[in-house]
Amino acid sequence: MTAPSGSGKTVLARELLKENAYLEVSAAEGCFAPSPEAQEKDVLFIDDIQELLSAEEQQAVISYIRDNPKKRFVLASRGGVTPGWLLQFEFAGLVGSLTIEDFRFGKDDLRDYLSLSGQSLPEATLDSILNNNHGYPLAISTLARRLQTHGGFNEACEAEGRYDIYRFLDHAVLDRFQPELQSFCLELSLFDSFSTELARMVSGSSQASGLIEEVKLRTGFMISDSMDMHRFLPGAEAFFRWKLEQLYSREQIGEILSRAALFYELQDDFENAMRFYAQAGQTKKVSRLLEKNARRQVGMAHYPEL
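Given the sequence above, the corresponding structure tokens read:
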């Protein structure tokens, strides 16, 4: 199972395995080390496998799976993709997989879930909730609790639910990052999508490509639309921007936007360059680019960037 924190992986695994003799271990609590207790169980559930970072730890899991062909395994990762070291089992057709799409709530799921707590909402409200929360299970469960507190759906209920999620992600996800990865995610959240080169320019990190892969493998909050274009999932983008505004001054955010503007200016992409200079409050640079573009387009009198 590969899905971001709050998707319900652990809850689902426990529910599916409750009639089985199984052992649950978390890779987040230390390196994987098979125990005598594991040998006595029919199923081994390993949670947080995204935390198995060393080749030695990964090989220990691979060897244990190979050495116990009669045992069943359930592996859960907060990442958005299957770790490369486990793909050999997937390619061989030995495992099934669940992704974030399998965990998202649809309208019927949402309606049934709310009915369990005696809540019934109009169809238009259900559509609005799904549109805003993208079927994210943690958002739905949090909202359901707030609905009970407020006695119905309103803006305050939705805002409080969102704040609950942000506080959870702050502790469960962001606090586990090294400082470089934290700042990388916060600063890139200012952009709806970005190339690896833009990420390198904005963050100032020569390891931008590696950081992008780390975010995808450890959180599932980033997806790639192509080999070189990336974006955060909407809920994650909103969370990182919320945290950015807490930790960065307006001047610091302006500097990030200015670096992005310079990147696009060097690419002769005047439209995006002026857009980010304007967001950074650098009106003189916007004027300079307008004049520069006018000289390039003499007699044509068109300014698509406006």
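The chain is about 55% helix and 10% strand. Try to locate this feature in the token string yourself.
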